[in-house]
């Protein structure tokens, strides 16, 4: 455990964690070992509900995480259109019956799930990619918003607004805690987010490149080697922009999608999530499928244990606030 809390914010007080750092839900990555390590380090981590094939599997993964830590952690429930129907109500019930106290929702409107979560005393953080969606989430009654800038891995939305603008634009309008997401991997990023009005930072790509993340070492090493230029935006032509690591598959998707009259069916065989999880994350074939990575990979210098990542972020942030920044005042 990190010995002292360096920063106390409305987020740390509201969610009962020691540090204003979040590991958001990541499909095929947000498993017990990683999330328990995040929790043990005093941050808030989210298991990925849909990483588990069934609601019963999710309940088992929650129990497995509890065997590894007594610290708070949550579950991410991402609500998106899928080829095969997902029993979201059953996953929600598994979360409630397992006694989870915090849920991160993402994707579609969380309104259908909020009454049940509220009745169970569960706090909800909703991920949004625009100020208007964040404001709507607050009106619905969520307890915090995670605002995703254009730099993020996954789905940055259609507006292309980077965090430097999006974060203060959101915090100006919201009265609930705001978690800054997209482009964060360092102590300087934490200080910047707090200065822009956020109450915490969310990191995904940085946590993939940790010892405890259950992905192939090739993936972790590639994140360290990559620069800010080594991501690619895909699916924009189909109204579902996604940022992934640049590789042979993402480039082929981009080329096929740019052709006149292209439809998603033309690239569906390349875009299979199962292909990415199995061939890339499990087997380490970096050109075998799509895998998520944000521009923050340019800031990742080595693969380290989660506790060391968080310790360094906090100590670097503390040094900036206590020594470097005051020294600029004359």
Summarize the structure.
By secondary structure, the chain is α/β, with parallel strands linked by helices. It contains 13 helices and ten strands. The chain is 38% helix and 14% strand.
Give helix % range. Answer: 25-40%
So, the CATH homologous superfamily of the largest domain? Aldolase class I
**Strand arrangement across the biggest beta sheet:** 1-2-3-4-5-6-7-8
| Mean pLDDT over all positions | 95
CATH architecture of the largest domain: Alpha-Beta Barrel
Strand tally is 10
Overall, the morphology is globular
Helical stretch tally: 13
Low-confidence stretches: none
Structure write-up:
- The chain has 330 residues and is α/β, with parallel strands linked by helices.
- It has two domains: 11-214, TIM Barrel, CATH 3.20.20; 231-292, no CATH class.
- It contains 13 helices and ten strands.
- It has helices spanning 10-15, 32-40, 55-68, 88-97, 114-119, 131-140, 163-173, 187-195, 205-208, 217-225, 248-257, 273-282, 306-324, and strands at residues 21-23, 44-48, 74-79, 102-107, 123-128, 144-148, 178-181, 200-203, 231-234, 242-245.
- The strands form two sheets. The chain has an eight-stranded parallel β-barrel, surrounded by six helices. The chain has a two-stranded antiparallel ribbon with strand order 9-10.
- A hairpin with a 7-residue loop joins strand 9 (231-234) and strand 10.
- The protein is globular.
- The model has no long low-confidence stretch (mean pLDDT 95).
């Amino acid at each position: 455990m990190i010995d002292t809390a360096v920063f106390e914010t409305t987020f740390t007080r509201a969610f009962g964690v020691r540090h204003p750092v979040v590991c958001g839900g990541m499909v095929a990555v947000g498993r017990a070992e990683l999330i328990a390590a995040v929790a043990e380090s005093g941050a808030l981590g989210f298991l990925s509900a849909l990483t588990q094939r069934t609601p019963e599997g999710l309940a088992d993964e929650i129990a497995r995480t509890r065997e590894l830590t007594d610290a708070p952690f949550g579950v991410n429930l991402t609500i998106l259109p899928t080829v095969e129907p997902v029993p979201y109500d059953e996953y929600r019930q598994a979360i409630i019956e397992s006694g989870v106290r915090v849920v991160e929702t993402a994707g579609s409107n969380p309104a259908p799930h909020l009454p049940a979560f509220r009745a169970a005393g569960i706090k909800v953080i909703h991920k949004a990619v625009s100020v208007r969606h964040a404001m709507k989430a607050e009106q619905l009654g969520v307890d915090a918003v995670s605002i995703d800038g254009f730099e993020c891995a996954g789905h940055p939305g259609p507006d292309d607004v980077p965090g430097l603008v999006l974060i203060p634009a959101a915090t100006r309008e919201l009265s609930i805690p705001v978690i800054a997401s997209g482009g964060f991997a360092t102590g300087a990023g934490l200080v910047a987010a707090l200065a822009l009005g956020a109450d915490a930072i969310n990191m995904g790509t940085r946590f993939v490149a940790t010892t405890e993340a259950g992905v192939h070492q090739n993936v972790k090493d590639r994140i360290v080697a990559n620069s800010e230029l080594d991501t690619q935006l895909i699916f924009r032509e189909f109204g579902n922009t996604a940022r992934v690591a640049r590789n042979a598959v993402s480039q082929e998707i981009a080329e096929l999608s740019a052709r006149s009259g292209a439809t998603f069916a033309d690239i569906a065989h390349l875009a299979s999530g199962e292909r990415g999880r199995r061939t890339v994350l499990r087997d380490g074939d970096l050109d075998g499928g799509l895998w998520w990575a944000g521009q923050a990979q340019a800031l990742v210098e080595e693969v380290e244990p989660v506790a060391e990542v968080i310790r360094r972020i906090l100590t670097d942030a503390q040094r900036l606030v206590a020594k470097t920044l005051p020294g600029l005042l004359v």
